[in-house]
Amino acid sequence: MVTLSFALMGLGLKLLNRELPVVRHLSDASFWMYLWHVPVLMFWQCAFMMIEWPWPLEFLLILFLTTLPLVITYDGFVRSTGLGAMLNGRRSPRIFLTKP
After folding, report:
1. CA distances (Å), 91 to each of 18, 19, 77, 87, in order?
2. How many domains does the structure of the chain reveal?
3. Most-buried pick from 7, 17, 22, 66 (CB within 10 A)?
4. For residues 98 and 80, is the Cβ–Cβ distance under 8 A?
């Protein structure tokens, strides 16, 4: 496991050695997502509890339905506010919910 960890870190350094806006946005949103993922995840797990779908499909759907609202709420309500400055140390402009 230690070797795998170092291999993945080396691969990440090799492939992601430049600034990517999507990766930067997800990196900025990661602490917000960490703080709020449990209530959102529990909501979706309770909603899907009685549905008899294959578990990989349920897993991917719940993962998507948990991640999407957290990224959108981060961009809309946190990123360019004082809370975003407290979480990330600076205020960044919104990406998704900008006014034309």
Report:
1. 22, 18, 12, 9
2. 1
3. 66
4. no
Structural domain harbouring 69: 20-100
Q: How confident is the model at residue 95 (pLDDT cuts 50, 70, 90)?
A: low
**Contact of 78 with 32, CB cutoff 8 Å:** yes
pTM: 0.68
Rounded-to-integer distance, Cα 34 and Cα 99, Å: 28
User: Which one, of 76, 68, 67, 69, lies nearest residue 95 by Cα?
Assistant: 76
- Give the model confidence (pLDDT) of 81-92 as tens digits: 777 777 777 666
- Give DSSP secondary structure letters for 33-59: HHHHHHHHHHHHHHHTTT----HHHHH
Is 15 part of a structural domain of the chain?
Answer: no
What single-letter DSSP state applies at residue 18? S
